[in-house]
Amino acid sequence: MTRRYLMAGNWKMYKTVTEAVALARGIRAGLEANPPDLDVVLAPPFTALHAVGEVLRGSRIALGAQNMHWEREGAFTGEISPLMLRDLGCTYVILGHSERRQLFGATDEGASRKARAAMDHGLTPLICVGETLSERESNRTLEVVELQVAKVLRQLTPDEVAVSVVSYEPVWAIGTGHAATPLQAQQVQNFIRKQVALSHGDAAADALRILYGGSVKPDNIEALMEQGDIDGALVGGACLKADSFLKIVHYDAA
Ligand code: PEP
Q1: Which of 98, 102, 169 to mutate to test ligand 1, by most ligand atoms within 8 A of the CB atom?
Q2: What are the φ/ψ torsions at residue 11 (nearest 5 degrees)?
Q3: Which of 14, 56, 62, 102 is the most exposed place for a label (fewest CB within 10 A)?
Q4: For the purposes of burial, counting CB atoms within 10 Å of the CB of 191, is it exposed (0-12), middle (13-18) or buried (19 or more)?
Q5: Which residues neighbour 89 within 8 Å (Cβ) at sequence distance 6 or greater?
Q6: For the segment 131-179, what is each residue's pLDDT rounded down to a tens digit?
Q7: pTM score of the predicted model
């Protein structure tokens, strides 16, 4: 199975609408000048989704959100629903990001309900998993990641898992400048694929795209992409400038 690679930019809580439009325009121009043979997703903050969606209209760049609620509507002050994201043109949604888990109480159970809701509304879930530094140091990485993956994918069928995206993001690598080594990432990502084969079957595991996230930069992406179970990257800091994100997308340029 050849999986189509995916590069996704998580803009986190950065960029006013004006700044977001400028960044999206820069990325669109760079990708149209030199079209990559992979998928690209931009996930700006909620406030810029509409404006960025307008910039991306008619391009091959997909729009993603950074979180959502699982209900389609209701009395949930401050929340955004899958229906609303579809209405804005989103086709991807990031779920279970470690910043949501660590700072805002997000859980595997919540991510599981959201993954189900994403599928029900035609959104591709981009599900983040990963261990903390203390979990790695106590040799619990695989155990922690196994549980996260099992819980979050629990409500999805094999066919749905096949079109989902998982991003392995060791918490100690996010925003620290200390990326996992290609071998560290490959070891965990290969393990994730094997676990998914056990839970959802070989075909789903084979088709599932597994990204790496955590201090991905233009100078480390190529070595990461050489690994067999790394199908792309979820990029935080390095996606906030068009030139560095474009270098990551074009990692294989001669
Ligand atoms: C992220 O937020 O998903 C991420 C990987 O951030 P950074 O690239 O800044 O480490």
Answers
A1: 169
A2: -80, -5
A3: 102
A4: middle
A5: 49, 53, 56, 57, 63
A6: 999 999 999 999 999 999 999 999 999 999 999 999 999 999 999 999 9
A7: 0.97
User: How many beta carbons lie within 10 A of that of residue 78, not counting itself?
Assistant: 5
CA dihedral over 219, 225, 229, 230, signed as positive or negative:
positive
Ligand 1: lining residues by beta carbon, under 6 Å = 10, 169, 174-175, 213-216, 234-238
Kindly give, in sequence order, each residue whose CB lies less than 8 Å from that of residue 187, ignoring residues fewer than 6 positions away: none
Ligand 1 atom, smallest distance to 176 CA? 10
**Is 70 exceeded by the pLDDT of residue 200?**
yes
Strands 232-235 and 92-95 turn out to be unpaired
Token duo for residue 170: 């060791």
